[in-house]
Amino acid sequence: MLNRRSFAATLLSASAVPFVNRAIAQTESDIRSAVRDLPQFHAMIVQRGDDIVFAEALRGPGLDRVANIKSCSKSIVALLAGNAISQGAIASVEATLGVVAPSIIPSDATQGVADLTIEDLLTLRAGLEGTSGPNYGAWVNSDNWVSFALRRPMIATPGERMIYSTGTTHVLGAALTVATGQSLLEQARSVLGRPLGIEIPPWTRDPQGFYFGGNEMALTPRAMLRIAMLMRDGGRFGGEQILSADWIRASIRPHTRSPFSGLDYGYGWFLTDSGFILARGYGGQVIAAHPERDLAVAITSDPNSPARSGGYFGQLIDLLEGPLLTLG
Question: Distance (Å, rounded) from C-alpha 312 to C-alpha 102?
Answer without folding.
Answer: 41
